Structure formats: structure tokens, C-alpha cells
Amino acid sequence: MEKTFKILCPTDFSECSLNAIEYAARLGEKFNATLILFHVLNKEDYLKLSPMDSTGRYQREFVQEKLKNLQRAVMEESLLNGLKGCEIAIQEGKIVSGALEFAEDMKVDLIVAGTEGMNDLRANIIGSRASRMVERSERDIIIVPRKVFFKRPRKVVFASDYMEEDKLAIQKVVEMAGFFDSEIDLVHISSSLKAIDKSLHMTMVEEIKPFVHYDKINYVLKSYRDNLALGLENYLQMAKGDILVTLSEKKSFFDQIFSQNLSKKMSYFLNKPLWVIKSF
Fold first, then answer.
1. Which of 182, 211, 250, 279 could form a disulfide bond with 167, CB atoms 3.0-4.6 angstroms apart?
2. Cα(245)–Cα(274) distance, integer angstroms
3. What is the pLDDT of residues 18-49, one digit of tens each?
């Protein structure tokens, strides 16, 4: 029996999480997936607003109704376009740990979560929910900024660091790009552009080509004096990329993007979805 692709979309009913639901549903249509809309109840916060409802009964009923409305809207729009089904789930606990534990229990293939983008990432990013979810997830995860509305990705930018895992990751990228007839730029950002860099790049290209069965792919080597994150931001803007893809093993890359004080130069990147591949 063929395994059903599962997408988990945590929601707190905010604008950014609603955008993430739309993004998840559109991807679910292509993967013929089951989409799970998931909400974590924070009883402690709720009691501050409604101290008389000590059992949290009304909170749960209220959330259940909102989830059902979202489920109904998703099914009406996406079932005819390929989505296999849409389920809802509620759980008490902490938002990040609760969502990730649920993802493991359900063996989901992909998590799609929203972020406030520039506002959410402006300061103390390591403490934000989006970054903690990316760091701690064992499942592939796509982070969708608040102002990003789904559109067919014309170009996917895959940031390669010449790792063996790239050969497996690129196959996932090709699968998704194929759904939308998207172009792929496999890009390596270097701090210099010496003969050794060009040689390593050519070697990587020759090694990875047998794993790529897709015509619309470009192999790009770029040099930037600034750090990796700014180099990628620059390339995304120049190439008009719609999604940035990286591997979780590139922790230095993640740190450079999310832990440093971000300048306005990074605003373009922070308004593009980030897909972090975690498993193969």
C-alpha cells in the first residue's frame, strides 16, 4: 500500500499562520497529501483571560470550531485539486515542543509553519518559535513569512555546500520543482573565486548530475566578500528566486542568517520561504 504524504501545519489563527495554511494546502494538492491543521492549547495563558473557565472547556470548544471552519475552507478549495484530505488536531502544552512531538508521532513528511518575517526575526531570533522549530525539528520544514502569499515558484534556489547529502536533497528539490515546472539554481557561495574553488565546483557538478533527472537546473558558483547569508540574499534578489532551500547540517549557515543582528539588506530574504531539508 502506497504511503500517504503528510503535511503538518501548526496554527494559532494569526495572519502569518493562515498564509502558511494556504501554502501547505497548495503543496498538498501536488503531493496528493493529507494536511493536518494543528493547534496547541496554552492553558496558562488562557486562564489569565478567562479565570472562571478553570477546566479550559470553552477554550477547547472555541478552538475546535475555528479549526473546523479552516478545515472546511481547505477542503472546499483543495480536495478537487489533488489534496487527499484535511484533518484537525488539538493538544495542550508548549507550542514548539508540542508541534514537533506531534509531527514525530504522526510521522509527517513536512511541516509548514508561519513566521512574522522581519518583525519576528528582527531581534532575539534564537528565542523565536520559528527558529526553534527549525533547529529542533527532525522533519523537513518550510517557514513561510507573513507577507508571502502562495504563487507558483518560478525558481527554487538550493544552497549547496558540497556535501554528500546534497545528492539526496536535490532529488527532493527536483520532485517539488517538477510539480510547478520551476527552474532550479544549485548555488555554492564562496568567499573567493580562485582556481581551487572552480575546480571543486566542477567536481561537485559532475558528481551530482547522475542524481538529477531534470532539465531546468543551473549550477552556479558565486563569490561574495560579505558573509554567506548576505551572499545568498544578494543572489536570491538577483536571480529572482522564490524559495531558498538548505540542509540542516549547515548549522553555520543557519546561525549566520538567524542569530546575527539583521540589517535591512536582509529584508528580501526574510520575505521568501525557507525550506530546510532534514531527512532523506
1. 211
2. 6
3. 889 999 999 999 999 999 999 988 766 555 44
